[in-house]
Amino acid sequence: MTETSTTYATTQTVDDTIRWRGEQEAAASWMVWLAFNAPHAPFHAPPADLHDQDLPSGAGPDTSATDPELLRPYYLAAAQAMDTELGCLLRWMEANGHGDTDILFIADNGAPPELYEATMDPKRGKGTLFEAGVHVPFCVSGPSVAEAGRVEDHDAAARRAEERARKAADP
């Protein structure tokens, strides 16, 4: 059966995660891989209550638009909407006794080519092993974090995600 939903995909992803977790045994160990679609093309205007970007009227830019300055506000709005919904999930977790959970957040491989500035080489961005394709956020929070606020300025941090997940799953 196919269902049609009018719920924003980022919101639906968080709602589905909260519903799933609520259906599990309270004391059960758990892990969820939460993969957001945003912020990816086609660029669009997320619900206004999820961001504070000043977007032109309408649902989004012309899908054939290639001007980074036209597309960037929509990209930023989608990223902020994702951040807002992630915050909703974290508040739900805290309110429902899961505040002691390790959270690993990693972004994918760089900004989309449509947002490259004139000075960026498209052959050295998203989908490549060059700086703009591999230097992405990886954030960890939770009780197993030994040094709060630590910043690692090399690529080894993301490679530890699997190790951290395995330790959490089999303490």
What structural class should be given to the helix and strand makeup?
Answer: mainly alpha
The arrangement of helices and strands along the chain is: HHEHEH
Question: What portion of residues is helical?
Answer: 25-40%
Question: What is the number of beta strands?
Answer: 2
Mean pLDDT: 80
What composes the largest sheet?
2 strands, antiparallel
What key phrases describe this protein's structure?
mainly alpha; 4 helices; 171 residues; two-stranded antiparallel ribbon
Description:
- The chain is globular.
- It has helices spanning 9-23, 68-95, 131-134, 156-169, and strands at residues 103-106, 138-141.
- The chain has four helices and two strands, in the order ααβαβα.
- A two-stranded antiparallel ribbon has the order 1-2.
- By secondary structure, the protein is mainly α.
Secondary-structure map with pairings?
Blueprint: H1 9-23, H2 68-95, E1 103-106, H3 131-134, E2 138-141, H4 156-169
Helix pairs in contact: 1-2
Brief digest:
By secondary structure, the protein is mainly alpha-helical. The chain has helices spanning 9-23, 68-95, 131-134, 156-169, and strands spanning 103-106, 138-141. The N and C termini lie far apart (40 Å).
